[in-house]
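ESCALATION

Customer reports they have been waiting on this structure for their group meeting. Please prioritize. Original submission:
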Amino acid sequence: MDIFSDPVLLARLQFACTAGYHFIFVPLTIGLGLILAINETRYYRSRDPKDAAATKFWVKIFTATFVLGLATGITMEFSFGTNWADYSRFVGDIFGAPLAAEALLAFFLESTFLGVLLFGRRRVSPKFYMVSAPAHRAYETKLIKIEDAAKKPLGAMETSNKRVINQFIHPDVLPTCQLSMGMTVLEPGSVWNTMPAHTHERRMEVYMYFEVPEDNVVFHMMGEGRETRHIVMQNEQAVISPSWSIHAGAGTSNYTFIWAMGGENQAFDDMDVIPTTELR
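Update from on-call: job pushed to the front of the queue and completed.
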């Protein structure tokens, strides 16, 4: 029997090729997204033209990968209905919702950020890339001034960490889907920004240091509590910490920093504290 006259076999071959080809681009886009984040952060910190060129190069590769993945992904989703209608009816109640969610996240969210990278680089501040989080509903757009922020004094001069936390984007001030943001101002004579060190479940955090006096730096500590590392931060430089990493630092002078957290856990005081004596 001629194998090309069997519609079932052809449907299986077509779906196998589409799914296999599409799957190649899934890990590629994930890995390229990380490469883009690293290069964008390097360029933001160094302003080196070589880092800018590297970012533009990887954006082109990411765009080509995204377009090919999009083309094969749409074809594959339609194949569930055209080639495997009985299967889709049988598992639709369970399989349909995750498939729709994946389509929304992959196609719409990813294409939005890709559009910013391709067409909005000169219209959007580089700081925008550092402070973004997915949203599942619309909230009020509101100007929040320093007077409107929820103020939370912490620390003491005796421990060199007397500071005021100004909560701007916070459930008590302005509700959002997954984003929290504020500004911490250290008093003169205080240098530690966060003590005791801690981690957050289900959210990551960004620190953007500014008002660091000239010829001064901040030693920012990160990593797991039992295996920390540090990087030296200068004025208007930012660092991203995943949920498993501590984020604390000490400066050679007082300074100010903006913190932003992205994730479903928006409880400000929900943290896993690591005793200072256990840090390594």
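Sent to customer with the following note: The chain has a mean pLDDT of 85.
Escalation resolved.
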